């Protein structure tokens, strides 16, 4: 403790101001005593604005030197050896941004504008949108509450760099002793060093583009249980259903037994447990109701008749086109068993249609329900009023545009989220709103039910995602860490994790148990609007406004493939039930099918170096087929249990 530290007086004054503000007199006196500051804050007319100290934008840099410093750095990068040039080039963008903000903060507007105009256009294409937004910030006051400048001020820009490149940069900075440059690099940049060969431009571009740079290797170190837990034994669930089903048709009890024995191998197919699956008691799981068991067996039976898709056996596609709905339809969702369609509208209404001959019935009145025999096998069917059947129903209650809808696995409930910052839970038996969940302060962009039911997750403009349970008014977890809107959310098939996509151009995977992020994945160049997990749980597909589908390996958080081909924003992604195909639907009126089975085989056959990103595969090899509608953007895709592909599109009426 013998070192003699000369504290910066302004910093100490700022700390004293904070202590004074919160009336922490004892601590204030101690600090004054220890730092030998015998001053009265009232007498000291120093502009010790707390913010100015905490931002790290020091005002001692001569405004004349900024441009020369930047030009000198640019020359150093350009004249470096090709092997290091591209990695060194990664520092130019964050240095330019912080030089610009530092000049603006200290009142040198003209110099700042000049710097931005000269060097802004040289930066990578994927940073141009952010640079345009920053160019509008020309006064210190503009920085207050500005999402982008706040993000840059409060977070270090992360750059992954090889040891050799980093030592080259350090030598250069040491020789130059450039105070402006050195301050910015020390305060605002974080170098995540790795051992190995420096990356080339294509490798850098693949994972670049997020607001604050790449993820550090530490961000993706945690273990992720991406496997699927063993399903409950179908055979034990099946027994009562078999008796009931066969007993109606056959007189003798022997025949059904024979039939059941025949189906034994069918039901006991999947017994292997996944080594990467989470422990079964890792999260509380709701008990299966009798109805759920019946449904599981029915689903299993249907999946046994499923066609396994691939390059030789492509799916048939059936598209539901919404007419007279241009500019009013905002979202759509189809139930797991493909029987019901829900559509959200900009006029705050949710409309539900049946896709099968069975009508949408409402429950009988309380008086009529008293007459129902509760011991009857088909008690649930008896509770519904046969005469109330409709082919569509409307759910009214929100006070703003509906942004997303999600069905519960048992199809008795529907969630909707809206611009009015609430989430509503609707009963599809009595067709009314049961609960309004109020927690977000701003519009809620997405809502998803867990594959287990009971839990659901939301994503909002307030930069958070939240995990809820249907019987709790308050969220169970708040996932905070994105720097901009959280635009989409998706549950992992094992319900232990949720993935989020954001306007900060990062995809995050969050652990529902701890509430922490366990993966941060960068590579998108625009906001992300849709996410889909592979059937095996190991891969995550994401897409959005940059028109590309990116595939991530959750084992290490690596980007493994980039599927290019769409020309407009992608709003829907889905995997076939067999997991072999990935379908993507876009506002460019096309639906594309990708050979995901081939990709996962190629990925598994590679020897992955964990410390280093693998080569990113391009989509041309994996594209199987593109289907086009005449004039209908695709807003939702869904594979039925037998692998028929359903699309929901809206006719936009503009023929070209």
TrEMBL record:
WD repeat extents: 395-429, 437-478, 479-520, 521-562, 563-604
GO terms, biological process: transcription initiation at RNA polymerase II promoter
Transport recorded as keyword: no
Gene3D superfamilies named in the record: TFIID subunit TAF5, NTD2 domain, YVTN repeat-like/Quinoprotein amine dehydrogenase
Keywords: Nucleus, Repeat, Transcription, Transcription regulation, WD repeat
The keyword Transcription regulation belongs to this UniProt entry's keyword annotation: yes
Gene Ontology MF term list: RNA polymerase II general transcription initiation factor activity
CDD domains the record matches: TAF5_NTD2, WD40
InterPro entries in the record: TFIID_NTD2 (IPR007582), TFIID_NTD2_sf (IPR037264), WD40/YVTN_repeat-like_dom_sf (IPR015943), WD40_PAC1 (IPR020472), WD40_repeat_CS (IPR019775), WD40_repeat_dom_sf (IPR036322), WD40_rpt (IPR001680)
Biased composition (Basic and acidic residues): 263-273
Biased composition (Acidic residues): 241-251
Region of interest (Disordered), residue spans: 236-290
Domain of life according to the entry: Eukaryota
Compartment(s) where it occurs, according to its Swiss-Prot or TrEMBL record: Nucleus
Gene Ontology cellular component terms for the protein in this record: transcription factor TFIID complex
Boundaries of every TFIID subunit TAF5 NTD2 domain copy: 61-189
Protein family according to the UniProt entry: Belongs to the WD repeat TAF5 family.
Descriptive protein name: Transcription initiation factor TFIID subunit 5
Species per Swiss-Prot/TrEMBL record: Photinus pyralis (Common eastern firefly)
């Amino acid at each position: 403790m013998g070192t003699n530290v000369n504290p910066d007086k302004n910093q100490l004054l700022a700390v004293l101001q904070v202590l004074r503000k919160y009336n922490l007199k004892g601590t204030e006196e101690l600090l004054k005593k220890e730092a030998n500051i015998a001053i009265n804050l009232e007498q000291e007319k120093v502009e010790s604005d707390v913010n100015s100290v905490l931002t790290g934008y020091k005002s001692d840099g001569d405004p004349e030197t900024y441009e020369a410093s930047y030009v000198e750095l640019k020359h150093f990068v350009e004249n470096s050896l090709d092997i290091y040039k591209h990695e060194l080039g990664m520092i130019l963008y964050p240095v330019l941004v912080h030089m610009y903000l530092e000049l603006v903060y200290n009142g040198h507007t003209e110099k700042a504008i000049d710097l931005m105009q000269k060097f802004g256009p040289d930066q990578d294409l994927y940073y141009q949108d952010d640079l345009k937004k920053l160019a509008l910030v020309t006064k210190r006051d503009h920085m207050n509450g500005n999402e982008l400048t706040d993000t840059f001020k409060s977070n270090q820009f992360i750059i992954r760099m090889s040891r050799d490149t980093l030592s080259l940069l350090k030598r250069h900075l040491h020789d130059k002793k450039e105070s402006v440059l050195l301050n910015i690099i020390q305060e605002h940049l974080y170098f995540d060093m790795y051992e190995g060969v420096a990356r080339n431009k294509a490798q850098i571009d693949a994972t670049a583009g997020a607001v604050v740079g790449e993820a550090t290797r530490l961000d993706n170190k945690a273990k992720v249980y991406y496997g699927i837990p063993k399903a409950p034994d179908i055979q034990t669930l099946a027994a009562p259903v078999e008796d009931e089903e066969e007993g109606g048709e056959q007189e003798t009890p022997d025949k059904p037994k024979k039939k059941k024995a025949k189906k034994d191998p069918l039901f006991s197919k999947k017994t292997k447990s996944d080594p990467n699956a989470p422990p079964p008691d890792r999260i509380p799981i709701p008990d299966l109701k009798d109805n759920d068991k019946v449904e599981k067996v029915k689903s299993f039976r249907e999946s046994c008749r499923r066609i396994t898709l691939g390059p030789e056996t492509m799916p048939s596609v059936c598209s539901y086109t919404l007419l007279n709905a241009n500019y009013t339809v905002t979202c759509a969702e189809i139930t797991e068993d493909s029987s019901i369609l829900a559509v959200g509208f900009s006029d705050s209404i949710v409309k539900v249609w049946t896709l099968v001959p069975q009508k949408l019935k409402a429950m009988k009145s309380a008086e009529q329900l008293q007459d129902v025999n509760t011991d009857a096998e088909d008690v649930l069917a008896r509770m519904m009023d046969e005469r109330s059947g409709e082919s569509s129903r409307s759910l009214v209650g929100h006070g703003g545009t509906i942004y997303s809808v999600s069905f519960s696995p048992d199809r008795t409930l529907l969630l909707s989220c809206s611009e009015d910052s609430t989430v509503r839970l609707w009963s599809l038996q009595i067709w009314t709103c049961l609960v309004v969940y109020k927690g977000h302060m701003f519009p809620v962009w997405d809502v998803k039910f867990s594959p287990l039911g009971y839990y659901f997750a939301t994503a909002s403009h307030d930069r958070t995602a939240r995990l809820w349970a249907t019987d709790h008014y308050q969220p169970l977890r708040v996932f905070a860490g994105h720097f901009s809107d959280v635009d989409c959310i998706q549950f992992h098939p094992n319900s232990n994790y949720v993935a989020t996509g954001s306007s900060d151009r990062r995809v995050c995977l969050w652990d529902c148990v701890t509430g922490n992020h366990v993966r941060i994945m960068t590579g998108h160049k625009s906001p992300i609007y849709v996410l889909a997990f592979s059937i095996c749980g190991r891969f995550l597909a994401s897409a959005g406004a940059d028109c590309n589908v990116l595939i991530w390996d959750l084992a290490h958080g690596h980007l493994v493939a980039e599927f290019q081909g769409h020309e407009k924003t992608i709003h829907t992604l889905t995997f076939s039930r067999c997991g072999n195909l990935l379908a993507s639907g876009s506002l460019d009126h096309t639906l594309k099918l990708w050979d995901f089975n081939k990709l996962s085989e190629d990925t598994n056959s590679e020897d992955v170096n964990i410390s280093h990103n693998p080569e990113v595969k391009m989509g041309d090899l994996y594209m199987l087929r593109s289907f086009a509608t005449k004039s209908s953007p695709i807003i939702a895709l869904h594979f039925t249990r037998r692998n028929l592909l359903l699309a929901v599109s809206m006719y936009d009426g503009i023929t070209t």
